[in-house]
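Hi there,

I know you've been waiting on this one. I reran it after we fixed the sequence typo, so this is the corrected version. Both the input and the resulting structure follow.
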Amino acid sequence: MSILTCAQPCKHKLYDFQQDCVEEFSGDGKSLLLADEMGLGKTVQSLLIVREQSLYPCLILVPKSLRLKWLGEVKHWTGKIAILNEEENDHGLDTFLSNPREALQGIFIVHHDVLSQIERKPWLEIMYKLSWKSVIVDEAHKFRNYDTKRGATLLKFKNTQRWFFLTGTPVINTTLDLYPMTRLLRPERPEFQTPGGFISQFCTTQMTPQGMEVIDSKNEDHLFSLISNHYIRREKQEVLKDLPPKISTTLHLQLDAEQNAMYQHFEQYLSMLLDSGEELYSPNVLSSLMRLRQISLDPRILGRNVKGAKTQAILDLIESAPHKIVVFSTLAQFLNILSNELKQRKIQHLLVTGSEDASSNSIRFNRSNLYKVYLSTMQKGLGIDLITAGTVVITDHWWNRAAEAQAIDRLHRIGQIHDSVQVITLHANETIDDYLETVLARKDQMVEKITVEREVVKAIRDKWKTKH
């Protein structure tokens, strides 16, 4: 580890490989495709390059589920307060541009899903025409299909000085996935100026009933020679031989407006129950508490046609994960919803929630490359191992830490084939997650469930008493 020599606010230690990237791309004005393996700090490196070169105004394009993460990272690494455009309130760009002098030194965050809605969101036309000194595209592989609405959006930017594409999986199908990025990395190259030119140079095709179809790649060495000065790819085993075997991250999420309104309604109802004299551990109170857990995961559990923020976050993580991934939840109904979402996307997975044999399913998961995702309730599968997965997602807290630790250890154990295990805990802000986190943090991990439930209910009651 070494220290990056730079001005405030950053006094944080960087790994040597991170510092090398920051130094190389802080000096020569090149755009960058940063394809480091997941967990090597692509966010940090890109933000420090932007900061070191004062590449403002900066636009950051992110998946919806990562908006708050980026908001925090921007503040942490640059000292700036980014403006976040909320889908429900399209005044973000107005706010960003309200003070032209500040906007020239500002950062604006927009999530991917909004970019193609130009017919309904006229402010996008303005955003595309602005002169951006830098644009950071997180999970850039999501724009690989240049002939879709989303894929075409990057090419709408006409006045961008530097591009920073971040993805741990730059090529998912064939080298054609790279076309939108190469087009912007090196616009002067004739091979990259049109999709047809790119395909003829770097792809093999065949005629199908639906028309010409790209089936493979060719001339990869020539392609990468053309972008080698703009491309960095490091793997954990290459640069972090001493990487801790388990890396834990909390992904903070904000409920969308409709989901949040539903949640607030039920939380207020619980408070009214308690004010009416209902016992802390009565069936009505416990039922209301369960509804809050269900809504914070996905309102469809209760039959409402509203997709939850955690569902979207998990789908984003699964799409981006370069390896197998395990998802643990306390609620089988939520895993059933996730399973249906994966079926629609034709993602092979195993679901272990009820009578399924967890042991035999874990063997199938470990032995077959067919399955990318393992969905399981946290309580199922004591003693099994899931050592071929490199990421585990905890969707919601159990009533004690021990159950979560035990679930995580089904991956984090002898025989694990990955250099580290990524542990990602989803946390919905301003929900029951806040109360659970607070209580569990000060309780012994073996604390009784009943104790935690009572403390959470009391915290909800106190909140609404303070409000009214």
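Quick highlight: The chain has 19 helices and 17 strands.

Best,
R. S.
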